[in-house]
């Protein structure tokens, strides 16, 4: 299976924050959701993938190519959507398109017009009058109209209402079905991922803690519930973090088999949601 994005031992240090030695592979033809708490390093990683920020060390390769020699060729094949405002707000969409289109050999005017129609966007109204949802649709129309193989989005659903979020996820789903695309997008709305993600990459405090198939998460992690008297300094080592209440404890583990062997029928095991995994991992970090 080909990887479209490969990061190898990538590090980047800011004052008070560090991306530490991330190695990440994004599989061709699938949707990978990139999750992590606020400030975990998602945007920083995406900027390095887009060559908007240079790593201090490590290698970034896209389609097996490096940016030093192939920047134009790589960017031609990527559609990039991000949350920050990318428009000249005093222009309308028609004028904005005239700026963007010539950058791409593969620009497809018909496809652009299809998106404009599908999203019901006005071509002659100034972009500064657009709502947040309209701006996101406009970004998508501009990013997808050169037929990119790889679509990278930094928090495309943030701040969007549930109806448009669903619409956006459906569009991405359609793109995956109709064409052979790869999508990599960051979000902290984990329920978005239930709909379309095949793989999950999870970053915490600048480290990649998980990058694997979505459905395998429930085999690798479990929520454990049991009585407080099962816990002591030894057994607690099995857990990423533990929530204790008078009625018992609830905890996340990534040592599922060992917990089963240790506690047998004295505990209840449940499948964690992505939100559970993020919550307990973040809590573990805070308590550590
Ligand atoms: N150019 C920069 N200079 C200094 N620090 C930075 C810079 N860019 C990002 N950071 C810091 O790096 C950390 C990670 O930020 P980043 O934007 O990558 O997180 P994120 O996971 O995308 O968060 P969010 O979900 O809130 O958007 C933060 O502490 C941020 O303040």
Automatic annotation (TrEMBL):
Keyword ATP-binding attached: yes
Lineage top rank: taxon: Bacteria
Pfam families linked: ABC_tran (PF00005)
ABC transporter domain span: 5-230
InterPro entries on file: AAA+_ATPase, ABC_transporter-like_ATP-bd, ABC_transporter-like_CS, ABC_Transporter_VariousFunc, P-loop_NTPase
Keywords: ATP-binding, Nucleotide-binding, Transport
GO MF: ATP binding
PANTHER family the UniProt entry points to: ABC TRANSPORTER ATP-BINDING COMPONENT, ABC TRANSPORTER ATP-BINDING PROTEIN ALBC-RELATED
The name this protein goes by in its record: ABC transporter ATP-binding protein
Organism, as annotated: Ureibacillus aquaedulcis
